[in-house]
Design a protein that fits this description.
disordered N terminus; 80% helix; Ferritin
Length: 184
Amino acid sequence: MSVAKDFPRPGRRVSDEARAAMLRVDQAGEFGATRIYAGQLAVMGDRHPDSRIIAGMAAQEEAHRKHFDAMIVRRGVRPTALRPLWNVAGFALGAVTAAIGPRAAMACTAAIETEIDRHYDEQLKELGSDDPELAAVIADFQAEELEHRDTAIAHGAEQAPAYPLLSGVIRLGCRAAIALSKRI
């Protein structure tokens, strides 16, 4: 592991390609999150008290997506070509976890937000002070994603059936989606 990757050196610049990949993957992730919540709400409807909480988190994710959409256009970044896949996969993940039960839906949020926190930390370290606008957006959204994770845990995520397995599989899928969306 290189020191430069963990601790940006003064004067080192993040390439335009790396910044584009950051925007591409972040926009894809926020889109995926909106689809996960849409799938959960489609199954849960408004019959469960957690539906209102999920709808609130979904609204924040939609605002994040719109912000990244605007940044992608303004900066001329190509969005991921995998959007149709994330559309279906996100909705399916949301629907399946909600069908398992409200705690599984919350476990899905907790797992994804744990990975997003790690992902945003890596981006902030890589950016350093090179792109203050993007770093500020990432830091703001990271704080809200951590609130989502904490809310999910407070609403029983860790009591979901087979939580360690469910969380591990979702986190692995999230890491794969991040890696693919950076490049494709």
